[in-house]
Amino acid sequence: MKPTNHPNAENTRPTLYLAFELSNQDWKLGFTVGHGQPPRQRKIAAGDTTALKQELTLAKQRFGLPADAPVVSCYEAGRDGFWLHRFLESEHVTNLVVDSASIEVSRRGKHAKTDRLDVEKLLTMLLRYHGGETRVWRPLAMPAWKRAPVRPPKSRIRLPRRLPNG
């Protein structure tokens, strides 16, 4: 059987890998440069793009990468939509938005679910995908918006927690 080759499999340039775990209050970031390297994990406020840029710079310094080293990132599709993807692309970060239903999970018994473990799993899968395993997950196709804003939504519609009877 012929091995599946991914276009990025032959990239030998040092690359910074970044995985996001997004939530309402804060974002968990996981950085690494490859397998066998313990990830650098940080937490920033949700939507704080200034802190995100600063963490990218600090992670490159921590791993000894040049300032122009490529960055590959991923996050699960969800509540934050595609503004984050557009922001990352504007910062020259190659980003994948992943269909959360396509991420493999162990079906044997109970498993722990924390943001730290989710970030580590996403990082591992990102490394596998970037290394050539195309069936690790299913990236989503990005909408082709010409003039979409590259900023977080200013406010979210708050729905009542409980509807009145009547």
Write the layout of secondary structure elements.
Layout: E1 16-22, E2 26-32, E3 40-45, H1 49-62, E4 71-76, H2 83-90, E5 93-98, H3 115-130
Parallel strand pairs: 1-4, 4-5
Antiparallel strand pairs: 1-2, 2-3
What does this structure look like?
This protein has 166 residues and is α/β, with parallel strands linked by helices. It has a domain at 16-130: Nucleotidyltransferase, domain 5, CATH 3.30.420. It is 23% helix and 19% strand. The chain is built from 3 helices and 5 strands, in the order βββαβαβα. The chain has helices at residues 49-62, 83-90, 115-130; strands at 16-22, 26-32, 40-45, 71-76, 93-98. It has a 5-stranded mixed beta sheet, sandwiched between helices.
Characteristic key phrases:
disordered N terminus, 3 helices, alpha/beta, globular, Nucleotidyltransferase, domain 5, single chain, 166 residues, five-stranded mixed beta sheet
Proportion of residues in extended strands: 15-25%
Distance between the termini: 64 Å
Proportion of helical residues: 10-25%
Number of strands: 5
In the sheet with the most strands, the strands line up as 3-2-1-4-5
In short, what is this structure?
With 166 residues, the protein is of the alpha/beta class.
